[in-house]
């Protein structure tokens, strides 16, 4: 059985980032997690919650909300790459396959582009179950910088 990743917070500054840096997360999709997600989101579509209903669908069984897998991308952004302090500007998502109860979702984020003038990063996001890509896309984020802002007032040199 796969072991879920525990994300310890790590704050990276823009100056710490490099193209090709990556971070991963592994999460097992449980019945309890899907039901909690339904309660939090308000999406109680029976394909997520009712096995008898789901048996009559294309997938033949219950599936997790697509945005459940996408929320794991947010977890990696907010906790590790780049971590606390990041501002999420946009996300494209392509839902390519179902995620079933009991599946292990493997999330991988990789820095694809850096915009130093705005401290922004484009991050390629992939969620897989086994070898199958179930969600992919790109995120744009603003990353805190160690450098002072050009328009910030300079500290008074007089003491």
Describe the 3D structure.
The chain has a domain at 14-29 and 68-142: Thiol Ester Dehydrase, Chain A (Roll), CATH 3.10.129. It is α+β, with helices and mostly antiparallel strands and 159 residues long. The longest helix has 14 residues, at 66-79. The mean pLDDT is 94. The chain is elongated and about 70 Å long. It has helices at 31-41, 46-49, 51-55, 66-79, and strands spanning 22-28, 87-91, 94-95, 104-115, 120-129, 132-142. The protein starts with 21 loop residues before the first strand and ends in a 17-residue tail after the last strand. Strands 1, 2, 3, 4, 5 and 6 form a 6-stranded antiparallel β-sheet that branches. The protein has 4 helices and 6 strands, in the order E-H-H-H-H-E-E-E-E-E.
Biggest sheet: strands, sense, closure?
6 strands, antiparallel
CATH level-1 class of the domain at 14-29 and 68-142: Alpha Beta
CATH level 4 superfamily of the domain at 14-29 and 68-142: Hotdog Thioesterase
Number of strands: 6
Strand fraction: 25-35%
- As for the CATH topology of the domain at 14-29 and 68-142, it is Thiol Ester Dehydrase, Chain A
Q: Mean of the pLDDT scores? A: 94
Corresponding CATH architecture of the domain at 14-29 and 68-142: Roll
Tally of helical segments: 4
Helix/sheet category? alpha+beta
Shape: elongated
What pattern of helices and strands is seen along the backbone? Answer: EHHHHEEEEE
Radius of gyration: 19 Å
Distance between the termini: 62 Å
Task: Bin the helical content.
Answer: 10-25%
Contiguous runs where pLDDT drops below 50 for at least 5 residues: none
